[in-house]
Amino acid sequence: MKVSELGEFGLINVLNEVVQTSNQGTDNSSPLGFELKVGIGDDTAVWHSSGTHGLYTTDTVVEGVHFTRATTPWRDLGWKLMAANVSDIASMGGLCLYALVTLGLPPDTDVDDLRALYQGMADLGNRYGVKVAGGDIVRSPVAFATVALTGAAERPPMLRSKALPGYQVAVTGYVGSSAAGLEVLLSGTPANSEAVELLVSAHRRPEPCIKEGRILLMHGVAAAMDVSDGLADDLSKLCTASGVSATIEAGDVPMHPALQEVFPERCLDMALGGGEDYKLVFAADENLMAEVIPLLSPSAAVIGRITAGDQGRVRVVDSRSGTQEELTPRGWDHFKSPSTTEAN
């Protein structure tokens, strides 16, 4: 079987099986007071030691797969790369600590471009306490960059596997704006309106939800993940990990007015399928949800409910029209998505 037949997430399951059956070596962690609490399958790995939960995540961007120089300036690329990692820490309710950066570079790469890349990482990282502590540089036929980020939480972190039937589902803000910004850039639409400029900015400089993640964790929310591959797909992953399904009310999905203005016919599809918004999708009982929603952004909204049934299934219903649709995967998959010049 080829990777293209299995898909990104099927491949992750295969590799996880190998890891679980092969990790039989010496355990150096326990004598030093470390305990692995969460491995492959969530937004970050989690270690526990001396009352602190260490969080560990990594993300990579590859030229021609995740970005093109025509649509993403190097400084914005640095911002987005760091944002992807910070968002993983946010989804666990943690704070950011240290980053290691690996660069793969063709020899003709302009040094000024790399200065801009690092400045972009600093632009985002300085907002959230990230300190770049080292890394590696290698020669590569195409440019790529990897950030490995550590974080910490003083409480057990939020996990994908903690959603229960009856819980409400919510997101911490507008979704679909980044996908719309990418569409604008790829189509060459002139940035001649405030709405278009806002969507482009949402794609190039998304804001992770560290503050929101902290609020959720401190108030007792247990189930969450970040929206990086698309709301429908990421909610499906949360449901799969929890052994449940979910229903979304179409009219409750929060979309920025700019998205609705520029793409009135496609805004809901972009909101459900578009990636890289880096909001958080989370689940909690009604009483807890009523407590935390007012503490979040005004655009945060309850969008549906966790249900029993086929794990991973997500349905969207429109109460106004009476329609119902079972969503199929529509977010980004490195090996199954149609060929494109830039991931969304």
What number of domains?
Answer: 2
Do you know the CATH topology of the largest domain? Phosphoribosyl-aminoimidazole Synthetase, Chain A, domain 2
The CATH architecture designation of the largest domain is: Alpha-Beta Complex
What is the terminal separation in angstroms? Answer: 27 Å
**Approximately what portion of the residues adopt beta-strand conformation?**
15-25%
Read across the widest sheet, the strand sequence of neighbours is: 8-10-7-11-9-12-13
Q: Report the sheet with the most strands, covering strand number, pairing sense and barrel closure.
A: 7 strands, mixed
Q: In angstroms, what is the radius of gyration?
A: 20 Å
Low-confidence spans: pLDDT under 50, at least 5 residues?
338-344
SSE string: HHEEEHEHEEEHHHEHEHHEHEEE
* Residues in helices, as a percent range: 25-40%
CATH class of the largest domain: Alpha Beta
Mean pLDDT, to the nearest integer, reads 91
Structure notes:
The protein has 344 residues and is an alpha+beta fold. The protein has two domains: 3-153, 60s Ribosomal Protein L30, Chain: A (2-Layer Sandwich), CATH 3.30.1330.10; 160-326, PurM-like C-terminal domain (Phosphoribosyl-aminoimidazole Synthetase, Chain A, domain 2, Alpha-Beta Complex), CATH 3.90.650. 33% of the residues lie in helices and 24% in strands. The protein contains eleven helices and 13 strands. The protein has a seven-stranded mixed sheet. A six-stranded mixed sheet has the order 1-2-3-6-4-5, with helices on one face. Strand 2 (45-49) and strand 3 form a beta hairpin. Helix 3 (74-91) packs parallel to helix 4, helix 3 (74-91) packs parallel to helix 7 and helix 5 (177-187) packs across helix 6. The radius of gyration is 20 Å and the shape is globular. Residues 338-344 have low confidence and may be disordered.
